Amino acid sequence: WMEAGSDFEHSLLFTSSVSSGSGKSDLEKMSDILEAVPQVKFICLDVANGYSEHFVEFVKLVRARFPEHTIMAGNVVTGEMVEELILSGADIIKVGVGPGSVCTTRTKTGVGYPQLSAVIECADSAHGLKGHIISDGGCTCPGDVAKAFGAGADFVMLGGMFSGHTECAGEVIEKDGQKLKLFYGMSSETAMKKHAGGVAEYRASEGKTVEVPYKGDVENTILDILGGLRSTCTYVGAAKLKELSRRATFIRVTQQHNTVFS
């Protein structure tokens, strides 16, 4: 990480974050990184299940040690836990359990929460305490990103929509003359083998590994998302993105596009 920090463009360090778990060694490791790369002002406390007293206490500990940093914490899906984490010192709460494109938590454990409902509920709780939320997972197209912002999200986290591009991580493979890139969930067997030496006997994999067609540079995908968001704002009468949640009204539908030529 020291090499990575020295190779980064100086301006990128100010928008980068140190991502950490809540284990015994994580706090010291995080402190070492932030001391060596002081330009980084964002901390992401990232666990699959934010519903634990241990995690709440860890957030308090990190806030006490880094009072000037912006702290993101999650994941949770209900308003009361959003409030608990904000009152413990977090600035931004990550919302989402199970909606990711390579996440299998809902089928493996039966645990989850519909992402749009979670964002609506959690945004209301966070904004009442002057906090913010990140909608983490569930987006498959620019329209989904617009819905997340319309539901009250301050930020939207994307993984699957950016997979397969030149800039994203993942091994490039070739099958039958077609370029593919590997994309895997962070609770998948692939991730556990890479970062933890394998799947522990007491655990189950809650993610999958997929082969995504190579898509080239990510710029076109980003421009497509931004173009969709601008059009969303014009449809609902929002002069700026922050107004979108005050202009949007949600109704329940069974399909969102015409399938005649799909």
Automatic annotation (TrEMBL):
The active site is at residues 103, 105. Gene3D superfamilies: Aldolase class I. NADP(+) binds at residues 46-48, 97-98, 186, 202-203, 231-234. Keywords: Metal-binding, NADP, Oxidoreductase, Potassium, Purine metabolism. GO terms for cellular component: GMP reductase complex. One of its GO terms (biological process) is purine nucleotide metabolic process. Residues 11-256 form the IMP dehydrogenase/GMP reductase domain. Catalyzes the irreversible NADPH-dependent deamination of GMP to IMP. It functions in the conversion of nucleobase, nucleoside and nucleotide derivatives of G to A nucleotides, and in maintaining the intracellular balance of A and G nucleotides. Homotetramer. Belongs to the IMPDH/GMPR family. GuaC type 1 subfamily. This is GMP reductase. The lineage of its organism: Eukaryota, Metazoa, Chordata, Craniata, Vertebrata.
